[in-house]
Amino acid sequence: MAKRIALVEDEPILQQNYSMALKKAGYEVMVYGTKKEATTAFSTRLPDLVLLDIGLGDEPEAGFEVCRNLRQQSSQLPIIFLTALDSDFDIISGLRLGADDYLTKDISMPHLLARISALFRRLDTINTPGAGNSVQTVGDLEIDNERLGLSWKGQPVDLTVSEFWIVNALAQKPGHVKNRDQLMQAVKAVVDDSTITSHIKRIRQKFQRIDKEFDAIETVYGMGYRWNHR
């Protein structure tokens, strides 16, 4: 069955161009031009992935609101911002709301399709039985590789797919520094330094909601990050 992608975009020409390319790549595509159309549709059925613009019609931040609502419905639904806005503030805002990726509209279609494919490959891990014991324990952290789930001190941590793979990569070798390139490989996407930094900040915040004393992710300045297992 074809994967179902929701395209939330208000410009008719871009709706047509992206929709045609996605359908040609074998995806089922649903197009929504306003926040109201998208939120109404998503309240009935969630797609398999969402491509989301920020400004919709006369609402300059409608996409942020759609993203926030989607994350309340699902922590693992892949969300990609696809927008003309490229400021650090917009990128960080999008990632803090839980988006898995943030792309600008000058991205080539093959590159966009590759990013979409990477997110779907990662999600397929959930439905693929793992070899041997799929649950790992690293101190107070428990990792369920089959379901892409994490718990800290017995409480589930509500991470996006990208956030899961970052924590998983760090925790595999506690005390070993992972640079940003290695974390990009873990996420299976090409992202810039600010994107990784934003993901790390959001991950810390989620752990700290459970444990105010959480400090297992250490920044090693000029090198990267490491998981401290005490």
From TrEMBL:
The answer, when asked if Phosphoprotein is one of the entry's keywords, is yes
| Residue ranges of every copy of the Response regulatory domain listed in the record | 4-120
Sorted alphabetically, the keyword list is: DNA-binding, Phosphoprotein, Transcription, Transcription regulation, Two-component regulatory system
Q: Write down the Pfam families for this protein, in alphabetical order.
A: Response_reg (PF00072), Trans_reg_C (PF00486)
Instruction: Give the protein's recorded name.
Output: Proteobacterial dedicated sortase system response regulator
Q: Which domain of life is it from?
A: Bacteria
What InterPro entries has UniProt attached to this entry?
CheY-like_superfamily, OmpR/PhoB-type_DNA-bd, Response_regulator, Sig_transdc_resp-reg_C-effctor, Sig_transdc_resp-reg_receiver, WalR-like, WH-like_DNA-bd_sf
Where does the OmpR/PhoB-type domain lie? 133-229
**In its keyword annotation, does this UniProt entry include Coiled coil?**
no
Where is the DNA-binding region?
133-229
PROSITE patterns assigned: OMPR_PHOB (PS51755), RESPONSE_REGULATORY (PS50110)
Query: Which residues are annotated as modified residue 4-aspartylphosphate in the UniProt record?
Result: D53
